[in-house]
Amino acid sequence: MKIPIKMVFLDKIKKNWFLIGIVVVISLAKLAPVIGVKGGILRPEITVKYLAVSFIFFNSGLSLRTEDLKSALLQVKLHIFVQSFTLIFVPCFVWLLVQLLSLTSINEHLLNGLQVVGCMPPPVSSAVILTKAVGGNEAAAIFNSAFGSFLGIFVTPLLLLLFLGSSSTVPYSSVFMTLTMTVVVPLIIGQISRRYIKEWLERTKPPFGQVGQGVLLLIIYTTFCDTFSNPALEMDRYSLAAIAVIVFSLQVFLISLAFFLSKHPRLGFEPGDTVTIMYCATHKSLTLGIPMLKIIYAGYDYLSLISIPLLVYHPTQILLGGFLVNTIKHWMTTAIKSRNAKPELVSVKTQENEKTLGSDTSL
């Protein structure tokens, strides 16, 4: 039975509604920036900076299944590899890349945004979903995404201040106090609340992901309202196109590097672990990133420009990761079969050696 084109089209929209939503809210911000600008009708300096950001992290704390992480807790070597790659190697590598790119005519604020991408922690959802789709080590992916996001609350602001400094008028102590009150505290409250309504959550399965993404669209909208309301800021098409190509190339390089490094025999990772590393160590969180930038660079005129590379990185990592699913799945199946066949080969060789020795002694 042939599926109607209309149904296929609606299904595509349903699956990619968030990516479509990003385009829609940026367009709306261009058409009516006065609504979401600072001091405007929505009052984003209160509703977004405090309420929306706090809700996102409360939502994350409420949805995070801590019991699913226990089975992966003892894979210390895997966790160290993933977190070191994403929070140490990637920021340093991107810094070197930005130094080279600064010699070109690419907009400096977009290059700063590229450094922002490098400093971000792994996302809670996309890496886990893609690891599960391939059939990799899902438990390790859940742990590293959750643990990486938790580390990112503290490490990412430090990395941003280290590589970029703070362009905000807010003192460092105030920045971290705001992060604590709008990120850490709601996350903890969400986890505590989950204990009391766990059965209800398991039974009803609320759409945490969609709700969080909906609030994130509001944050993106108000961020770009500030940009389009400032006539002094102009979008450089050459720089935007260059950043899009660089972001894609960067992801291909990082995924390839993570793949080949994690396959090294001395590390002893299983094929399923390699899949987890490929996604968790190279993906970057938009959900954590945008709210953090909103806090750390509050009042910064070029906030939306430094946000653009992250907005490009997010859909690209999902599309590229999804495109590679079948290829990686085929590799993992072949690698597992090859590993399982090795003991049999050793056994056959041992039997042949025994026969040879037996014939030698009979002579």
Shape: globular
Total strands: the figure is: 0
Structural class: mainly alpha
Average pLDDT confidence is 79
Fraction of residues in β-strands:
under 5%
Helix content: over 70%
- Rg, rounded, reads 24 Å
What is the string of SSEs from the N terminus onward? HHHHHHHHHHHHHHHH
Sheet of most strands:
none
Gap between N and C termini:
72 Å
Unreliable segments (pLDDT under 50, ≥5 consecutive)? 167-171, 344-350, 352-363
Counted by DSSP, the helix tally is 16
Can you describe what's shown?
By secondary structure, this protein is an all-alpha fold. The protein contains 16 helices and no strands. Helix 4 (44-63) crosses helix 9 (172-196). It is globular and about 65 Å long. It starts with a helix and ends with a helix. The model is unreliable at 167-171, 344-350 and 352-363 (pLDDT under 50).
